[in-house]
Design brief:
Layout (H helix, E strand, L loop, with lengths): L2 H6 L3 H12 L4 E2 L1 E4 L2 E4 L3 H6 L2 H13 L3 E11 L8 E6 L8 E9 L5 E3 H4 E2 L2 E3 L6 E3 L6 H5 L3 E10 L5 E2 L3 E6 L5 E2 L5 E10 L10 H16 L3 E9 L5 E10 L2 E8 L4 H13 L4 E6 L6 H5 L5 E4 L5 H14 L9 H4 L3
Parallel strand pairs: 18-19, 19-20
Antiparallel strand pairs: 1-15, 2-3, 4-15, 5-13, 6-7, 6-11, 8-9, 9-10, 11-12, 13-14, 16-17, 17-18
The chain binds zinc ion (3 copies).
The site of one zinc ion (ZN) has 8 residues, from loops.
Length: about 350
């Protein structure tokens, strides 16, 4: 393997980050907000050791080196003065920039048909219809419940500036930083892309078979519980006389299942299984695709190889259904049950 050369290009922190995810069995990491911080799932402790800016730099450099792939996920508004995430927004008047603007809604009480401004519906602490006096919501600060129950609907909304008196449909949005107190517009704001990061096949060199091993152990447990004789890293002598290797075989009542697992959804894994399938007779051939590659399942179908999406948490259940069907089948009808249980 030439991977030693590429591996050496990782610095210590980059390697630590990858190993942290690998050790936790994670294949991707997603940004989450925690108070004023952006933390990546599974990397929280590591972020505490360095800091979130360094963490984002590491993720980007690992992407540049091909160990991770970016996926669109989230974005955040940051203070342009102090880079804080603790930013809140207010509406302001497009005419005089005052933040003292009122929102005026035109509401309709559906049951009696009365229409009026929200001010007319607001009675002390409750939202009530001024005509029929029905209490619509227990708090005037939220009419979501009333809207959901269908009692009122918003016919229109606009804004009025309390300072200069102008009326407008669309207010300006001003952002405020809770940390340093500065205010800024969308033009001045730092708008940060927060992608999710997915590990790529390149990490296989750091932890060969790591993801496959865990999956096979789960399959082994599930099938052993069903009374199957399960063998990991099994050798089966083919019709050609060649010993074929499978990640897992399971047998019961004269029925045989052959299974391989694909860590990164490579077509080569399917083709290799197809080659072995022509040499070894079995009742069920399964490829568990841990990458959830969209085209492997359709590629396997004409060859009667059941490709199971290993990213779907229910994959053990899908496999269970397949082996149950296999046991029910007449011996000569081998693999016909696949039609019914093939995913999608
Ligand atoms: Zn009413
Ligand atoms: Zn104004
Ligand atoms: Zn700030």
């Amino acid at each position: 393997l030439s991977s030693t050369k590429t591996e050496s290009r990782l610095n210590q922190m980059e390697e630590k980050l990858l190993n942290t995810l690998i050790d936790k069995g994670l294949r991707e990491t997603k940004p989450r907000r925690r108070d004023t911080m952006i933390l990546y799932t599974g990397l929280e402790e590591l972020t505490d050791q360095i800091n979130e800016v360094e963490m984002r730099k590491l993720l980007r450099s690992l992407t540049a080196k091909g160990y991770m792939a970016e996926k669109n996920y989230d974005s955040a508004i940051l203070c342009p003065n102090c880079a804080s995430l603790k930013v809140y927004s207010k509406y302001s008047c497009p005419n005089c920039q005052s933040n003292y603007v009122s929102k005026v809604q035109l509401l309709e009480h559906i049951t009696c048909g009365y229409m009026g401004s929200n001010a007319e519906f607001e009675k002390e602490d409750v939202l009530a219809c001024p005509k029929c006096r029905t209490v619509i919501a227990e708090t005037k600060e939220s009419n979501v419940g009333a809207l959901e129950s269908g009692n009122i609907r918003i016919i229109g909304s606009s804004f009025v500036c309390d300072k200069c008196g102008s009326k407008f449909e669309k207010p300006l949005t001003t952002h405020f930083c809770d940390k340093c107190g500065s205010s800024f517009t969308y033009k001045e704001a730092v708008y940060l892309k927060l992608p999710a990061y997915e590990l790529t096949e390149k990490v296989e060199a750091l932890a060969p078979k790591r993801y496959v091993t865990e999956t096979l152990r789960r399959v082994e447990n599930a099938l052993t519980a069903k009374g199957f004789k399960v063998e990991l890293d099994a050798r089966v002598k083919g019709k050609s006389g060649v010993e074929q290797r499978f990640d897992l075989t399971a047998s019961k009542d004269q029925k045989l299942m052959l299974l391989d697992a694909s860590a990164w959804g490579n077509q080569g894994d399917l083709i290799s299984l197809l080659g072995k399938k022509t040499d070894v007779d079995a009742n069920l051939i399964v490829l568990i695709d841990l990458y959830g590659s969209p085209n492997l399942a359709s590629l396997g179908k004409p060859y009667k190889i059941a490709v199971i999406d290993g990213r779907d948490e229910k994959y053990i259940g899908v496999l269970s259904n397949l082996v149950d069907e296999m046991l029910k089948e007449e011996p000569e009808k081998r693999t016909s049950h696949l039609k019914r249980w093939l995913p999608r």
